[in-house]
Design brief:
With about 325 residues, this protein is of the alpha/beta class. It has two domains: about 190 residues, Rossmann fold (3-Layer(aba) Sandwich); about 110 residues, Orthogonal Bundle (Arc Repressor Mutant, subunit A), CATH 1.10.10. The protein contains 15 helices and eight strands. The protein is globular, with a radius of gyration of 22 Å.
Length: about 325
């Protein structure tokens, strides 16, 4: 390799948190390997790190060899991604947070994949930035860092901060990053290598639409379902929801029965309890705080409703 080629090599680091999703990591790292193959030379160099330098174990049990976290000025990284999956309450790695801050001070571009943006937030690297996170972790991030608001997007690039929802969204993100460096034609060749023929825009949604998720297409009912998901902490009265749908309360009841086979109250309660279940798994909030955050008037009422749906008390669900 010539000296010019050596200068053109860009080193990308991945800090893998135990329990990371293998698909998210592969969707981000494999396009770089393909880029090297298609270029016929090394244009990207990968370095893999873990909190303790031991092989990082993915959520599926696959072990990835890794080095210890880079020390000051020793990594030569252009970009460093932290990739995390599982439960935010298990991501207690102060060494990783210190490493991210140090890399940022050295001018390294910092990225987060899947749950990685949560660790970026914990390191104080997302203030005043547009960012996203996997939708499953958004609730825990909002509770832990109330001054931050993630965008519902597949990935976001805000200067020297890159965040991605994970899953297969890193394929879209890497297409943009490779095009940024090597041009759109080369990036298209890399995406075609993985049969990735439809590259999504950054702001494309992470989840299916309300109509797809609930299997309904009535515009008034969809408007109510959307508002239900937006008002979990302070539920609205049925009359207010009927006005949003542009129907009477009686007709609103008929819409829920005909399209969803349930009642207005049961559907609203189910949405709030699903949110509570995510908070129990991912946030450090107490059970009482989660009851308040999901609009229940008392802890006993919350516990009773939660047990009716999940067959276990909230504290039992958290232990599981």
């Amino acid at each position: 390799m010539s000296s010019l080629d050596s200068r053109n090599v860009q080193t990308i680091g991945f800090i893998l948190i135990p329990g990371f999703a293998l698909m998210s990591y592969a969707s981000a790292s494999e396009p770089l390997r393909a880029a090297n193959l298609l270029a016929g030379r090394e244009i990207y160099r990968l370095r893999i790190f873990s909190p303790d330098g031991a092989p990082a174990l993915s959520s599926s049990g696959v072990s990835v060899p890794a080095d210890a976290l880079p020390v000051r000025g020793a990594a030569g990284l252009g970009t460093a991604f932290v990739c995390a999956g599982g439960l935010p309450r298990d991501w207690r790695y102060p060494g990783v947070l210190s490493c991210l801050r140090q890399l940022s001070r050295e001018g390294v571009r910092i990225g987060g994949i899947s749950g990685g943006p949560y660790l970026m937030a914990a390191a104080g690297l997302l203030g005043g930035r547009d960012f996203t996170i996997h939708w499953e972790h958004a609730s825990a991030l909002l509770e832990a860092f109330p001054d931050l608001t993630p965008r519902q997007a597949r990935f976001m690039i805000d200067g020297n901060r890159i965040t991605c929802g994970g899953g297969i969204a890193p394929l879209d993100m890497m297409h943009v990053l490779i095009a940024e460096r090597m041009g759109p034609d080369f990036a298209r060749r890399v995406s075609d290598w993985y049969l990735h023929t439809e590259v999504n825009e950054p702001a494309a949604p992470q989840r299916a639409s309300l109509a797809e998720r609930y299997g309904v297409h009535h515009p008034g009912l969809l408007a109510v379902l959307e508002r239900m998901e937006e008002t979990i902490e302070m539920p609205l009265e049925r009359a207010a929801m009927a006005r949003i749908a542009g129907v009477t309360t009686r007709h609103l009841d008929r819409l829920f029965a005909a399209h969803l086979g349930t009642t207005f109250l049961d559907q609203y309660r189910r949405i709030r309890l699903q949110h509570a279940h995510r908070l129990l798994k991912q946030s450090p909030l107490s059970v009482s705080e989660i009851a308040v955050a999901t609009g229940f008037s008392s802890l006993s009422h919350f516990s009773r409703m939660f047990r009716a749906v999940y067959g276990v008390a909230p504290r039992g669900a958290r232990q599981e």
